[in-house]
Amino acid sequence: MNKSQYPVEGAGLGLRRTLMGPLTDRPPQQVGFYEVAPENWIGVGGSWGKQLRAFAEQNPMICHGLSLSIGSPAPLDETFVQRVKQFLDQHRIRAYSEHLSYCSDDGHLYDLMPIPFTEEAVHHVAQRIRRTQEILERRIAMENVSYYAAPGQEMNEIAFLNAVLEEADCDLLLDVNNIYVNSVNHGYNAEEFLYALPAERVMYFHIAGHYAEADDLLVDTHGADIIDSVWDLLDKAYAHFGVVPTLLERDFNIPPLPELLGEVDRIIACQSKRQQQGDQLHADHA
Question: pTM for this structure?
Answer without folding.
Answer: 0.93
